[in-house]
Amino acid sequence: MRKLWLVFFVVGVAAGAACSNDAACVDDPNSSNACPPVEGTYSMSYGAETDSDGCMTMGIPAGQPLPTTLVLARGGSNLHTTVNGADLSGQVLDDFQFTLHGSSGTDIDDGGNLVGREIDTDVRGTFAFGANDAGGTITGTWQTTDTTADCNRSSPFTGAKF
Questions:
Q1: pTM of this prediction?
Q2: Residue 26 backbone phi and psi in degrees, to 5
Q3: For 2-31, how does the pLDDT look when each residue is reduced to its tens digit (9 = 90+)?
Q4: Residues in contact with 36: Cβ distance below 8 Å, sequence separation at least 6, in sequence order
Q5: Which of 2, 13, 26, 31 makes the best surface tag, with the fewest CB within 10 Å?
Q6: Could you tell me where the DSSP H helices lie in 19-116?
Q7: Is domain 22-161 classified as CATH 2.40.128?
Q8: 120-140 pLDDT, tens digit each
Q9: What is the rounded distance in angstroms from the CA atom of residue 142 to the CA atom of residue 46?
Q10: Which long-range contacts (CB under 8 A, 24 or more apart) does 128-133 make?
Q11: Cα distances (Å, whole numbers) of residue 69 to 7, 41, 56, 83
């Protein structure tokens, strides 16, 4: 029984060592923590939007449209894009997950009155290689928060690299 426990312990430690620890990726292709080639241009599609706080019930209109094309730039583990004039920046992890975050101000016409709004954008996703390591896809969740009205909207997304 003691030998069996030792076998399970050794196998468990080896399996744990092979798994990611959610560390920032590195620009060394020979490293086990190498960055995935997430940079590039993606054709984006979105699933049904979830309105977790009843934004439409409160009369808060939707924010700016989600992008149909997303261009990601990567330098080491740092990731950057610009969407609707807002800079989003974040990080790529060694397990191919990534994050982006940014804020922008916008004015909406509230029945003839311009009302200032601040919109936070949070993107969480995962990169996957395409067939034969060509192209690739990103999948995840795109969330916007109208901080002025404490209103959250979330959409699942898929992006195909081209």
A1: 0.77
A2: -125, 155
A3: 444 333 333 343 334 444 567 999 999 899
A4: 25, 92, 96, 127, 129, 136
A5: 2
A6: none
A7: yes
A8: 899 999 999 988 767 899 999
A9: 9
A10: 128/96, 129/36, 130/161
A11: 50, 7, 26, 9
